[in-house]
Amino acid sequence: MNWEEDEEKLLPSQRPEWSDVSPLPQDDGPNPVVPIAYKPEFAETMDYFRAVYRADERSPRALQLTHQAILLNPGNYTVWHFRRLILETLSKDLQQELDYVSKIAEKNSKNYQIWHHRRWLAEKLGPDAAGRELKFTEKILSGDAKNYHAWSHRQWVLQSLGGWDDELEYCHQLLEEDIFNNSAWNQRYFIITKSPLLGGLQAMRESEVKYTVAAILANPENESPWRYLRGLYKDDPKSWIHDPQVSTLCLKVLTSSGTNHVFALSTVLDLLSHGLQPSRELREAVDTLNPNSSSTKDSLGNTICSVLEHADAMRVNYWRWRKSQLIV
Amino acid sequence: MAEQPLDLDSSPSTPGEQEEGEQEECIGKLLADSSFERERHLMFLQMMYQMLPHHYQSQEINRLTLAYFAISGLDIVGSLDTVDKDEVASWVLSFRAYPEDIAEINDGEFYGFNGSRSSQYHSDDAGGFSNNHSHLASTYCALAILKIVGYHLTSIDWRPLLMTMRNLQQPDGSFLPIHIGAETDLRFIYCAAAICFMLDDWSGMDRDKATEYILKCKAYDGGFGMTPGAESHGGGTYCAVASLQLMGSIGVDPLSSRASSSILDIPLLLEWCLQRQASDGGFQGRSNKPSDTCYAFWVGAVLKILGAGKLIDEKALRGFLLTCQSEYGGFSKFPDELPDLYHSYYGFIAFSLLEEPGLNSICVELGITEAAASALRK
């Protein structure tokens, strides 16, 4: 591929090698709706693209033209499709094409077509591509640790091509950098449930609970690890309510002053709804937080909702509704 | 809904960002409008309808989607009389792909609507290869626009479209948007469901298989990711829940029923949705990400479907949205940025959900006004 910028700046009409081609203008019909004020450079590039596409010309110059069209409209799936046809016909080196995508992706890391093209290439290259793809997504994630496309691609690579070995460690690194990164927490869940190298959710639960509890105690206002903790007991509410680590955690958070208690409170509410028999200490910790001391005769659930109406005022309507739904 | 506009990501956030954001938000609020400026938005929409500035050329492939935003936007603000309905209908229908002959129905292609002229050619230009790049998202937008302008959909035989749409459904229940190959995710199940619903014909998809895939996208925290295993996401959750609603899998008033839905963990989903309202009053698309105008619809719509629309803090949401209202008309993604057509559309729709006077009410699962969705128009 020719990267020289001078080359890229020349439009087809300015290049002698295109003199044999008649550009095909867009036919917008008699009454176009929502017309776009195309710049001349865009219109001309697409007119030439239309011409080679119609003629099904799968040549090196056509390949270069798809590159120019992609720069102007990276979302154009017709152009990308034609590029793939040309790559196949010309038996182009797919590793080189991966280099091309890496360059283009720098400025377009949230474009669906680029990621799909990447997947198409990786599929063709097979399991050998796994390492490279994991490195590539790692690079994108180093610029934006929550890029949804990158995570989606990474999950696909792991499931289709392999490379699970260091994934849990990678998640840990990302969480060290930003414990609030919900994408990294989600990836953690993906690994412990899907990795063929680990024992599955139940087997991993013990170590994961310890990990998560530490994260929560460091930042109790962080929603992500609370959700993750709940997720560790998915489909197993008995273990959820009987694991002493869970209620101990809630108690710890609720008895710390100057701490955000919202998620601890909603977690206790959730535990109660699944049948938790609350300890006296838990009851007392919640009562201490209750601004309205005259309602000590209320159920614990009721008291929690009252506290949350103030502590989580954005959701006051919700906590009032939750209170109304409690079976007293 | 189409590929480019459903912007999965806000900008990257760091731990300190929320604090900074809150400071900026306070300053922004001091200068923000105090009301929804309908006249300004009308001018913005009329301008976009007349001519999209060259910045939109990079979204050229999704022209029909841009048209949907402009036309449906005009409908929401009560100014559909701006458009020439017959002109719009014939323009939209000009994007329709037809098989050359009925035998081609089994060639594996999808005969729906193209999204733009850049992927569409006259049939005599076809050459030796397929020039049909009908796309599910464009098809959804096309049918939505036709409904908005009151075109009688029953006047067309949609069987080729529906029969060939099945070609796009994968063994796992998900949908490709286009037969030449692309990513498969919840967005296209939504498009397929909306298409079947608008055409009142479910032969276009296997609903059970689609439901299976949707449920696989349920994340551990109650929301839905775009693909199985993906992080729960406002857009994915909308696609999942709206699809289930369209397919008839969610009962009336799901919140009230003691016997909650057998396929949805409604309490968990409800709490996930409500937790998306951040301290600045706006809605975020994912946990610990900045608020973005469009999630006021993606998440707000799910809450409405669940019957929980009133559980949010409407005043706080309004406040946030007003900081995203542009002095040029339209809405931006984040406070104090330039408006774009996509975020403007979802800003208008969000205000409709907040029952802003002068705005038409929305059929949330179709993303068009209730009047457009019902057959009674015109």
UniProtKB/TrEMBL annotation, chain A:
KW Protein biosynthesis (keyword) present: no
EC number: 2.5.1.58, 2.5.1.59
Catalyzed reaction equations: geranylgeranyl diphosphate + L-cysteinyl-[protein] = S-geranylgeranyl-L-cysteinyl-[protein] + diphosphate; L-cysteinyl-[protein] + (2E,6E)-farnesyl diphosphate = S-(2E,6E)-farnesyl-L-cysteinyl-[protein] + diphosphate
Stored PROSITE patterns: PFTA
Alphabetical UniProt keywords: Magnesium, Prenyltransferase, Repeat, Transferase
Region (Disordered): 1-32
Gene Ontology CC terms, in alphabetical order: CAAX-protein geranylgeranyltransferase complex; protein farnesyltransferase complex
Pfam family, one: PPTA
Cofactor(s) it depends on: Mg(2+)
Xref: InterPro entries: Prenyl_trans_a
Keyword Methyltransferase: no
GO molecular function: CAAX-protein geranylgeranyltransferase activity; protein farnesyltransferase activity
Role of this protein: Essential subunit of both the farnesyltransferase and the geranylgeranyltransferase complex. Contributes to the transfer of a farnesyl or geranylgeranyl moiety from farnesyl or geranylgeranyl diphosphate to a cysteine at the fourth position from the C-terminus of several proteins having the C-terminal sequence Cys-aliphatic-aliphatic-X.
Family statement: Belongs to the protein prenyltransferase subunit alpha family.
The protein's name: Protein farnesyltransferase/geranylgeranyltransferase type-1 subunit alpha
Organism per entry: Linum tenue
Automatic annotation (TrEMBL), chain B:
Keyword Repeat: yes
Disordered, as annotated region: 1-25
Assigned EC number: 2.5.1.59
Domain of life: Eukaryota
InterPro entries per UniProt: GGTase_I_beta, PGGT1B-like, Prenyltrans, Terpenoid_cyclase/PrenylTrfase
Domain Prenyltransferase alpha-alpha toroid per the UniProt entry, residue ranges: 36-363
Gene Ontology terms: cellular component: CAAX-protein geranylgeranyltransferase complex
Gene3D superfamilies referenced in this protein's UniProt entry, alphabetically: 1.50.10.20
Residues annotated as transmembrane: none
Molecular functions per Gene Ontology: CAAX-protein geranylgeranyltransferase activity; metal ion binding
Cross-referenced SUPFAM superfamilies: Terpenoid cyclases/Protein prenyltransferases
Keyword Magnesium belongs to the record: yes
Family matches, as Pfam families: Prenyltrans
Keywords: Magnesium, Metal-binding, Prenyltransferase, Repeat, Transferase, Zinc
Cofactor: Zn(2+); Mg(2+)
CDD domains the UniProt entry points to: GGTase-I
Family: Belongs to the protein prenyltransferase subunit beta family.
The protein's name in its UniProt record: Geranylgeranyl transferase type-1 subunit beta
Organism field: Linum tenue
